[in-house]
Amino acid sequence: MAVESSAEISYDKLLRLSHANIYNMINTAANVDDPVGTATTRKWVYVRQPRLNSRNFAGYPYIIVNMPRINIGDRTLDSNSAMIEWEIIIEVWSADRYSTTTYGDTAGDPKGAEYLQSISDSVISTLTNATNQTTMRSYGMYNIDLSAETNDYTNENGEMIFNRDFRITFNRRMGLN
Which of 108, 131, 166, 170 fits as disulfide partner to 98, beta carbons 3.0 to 4.6 Å? Predict the structure, then answer.
């Protein structure tokens, strides 16, 4: 799925542009740096869960910027405007990388938790940065609220998988025409 360029949100593009504005901000290496490569060498920010078994999957860590949920409420009496609220979940996934050597012991890159923390700090820093918040307001995304929702890990096939979800909400009164 192609993501649009960032722009001011309009009523006819509520979902597309609210998603594009956050996706493009997160998918900028100057904002959120890939700890195992660069944005030019591998894809690591997705709009949905990547196919982990796919040939094109570049591996952990990766970020998913989910499509927004939207709530339209508190309409004016003449129905010309309403309070619009967007909610976007950003998922950060990381893993300890292990491989078995010819001697049967394991080697690799057991930095999954470290990468999760580093990427999470970059996501928070990006979304709370004064310049980026001014940019989001210029796009019509006001009253930014950010929370870290989950922090979890699991063992899959001998590999530790870590993840953290961020919930971002915005709201503003907007004309409906």
Answer: 108
14 token code pair: 């509520």
Burial pattern 10-33, b for ≥16 Cβ within 10 A else e, equals eeeebebbbbbbbbbbbbeeebbe
Do the bridges between strand 159-175 and strand 97-100 make them parallel or antiparallel, or are there none, so unpaired?
unpaired
pLDDT in tens, the chain (177 residues): 678 888 898 888 888 999 999 999 999 888 998 888 755 678 899 999 988 777 778 888 999 999 999 998 888 778 788 889 999 999 999 998 654 444 444 556 678 889 999 999 999 999 999 999 999 999 999 899 999 987 888 887 778 899 999 999 999 888 877
What is the domain partition of the chain in residue ranges? 11-175
Tokens linked to 13: 């593009």
Name the DSSP letter for residue 63: E
Nearest-5° angle of CA 96, CA 27, CA 32?
60
Closest CA to 123 of 53, 44, 52, 49: 44
Dist. CA 166–CA 163, nearest whole Å: 10
Cβ contacts of 103 within 8 Å, gap of 6 or more:
none
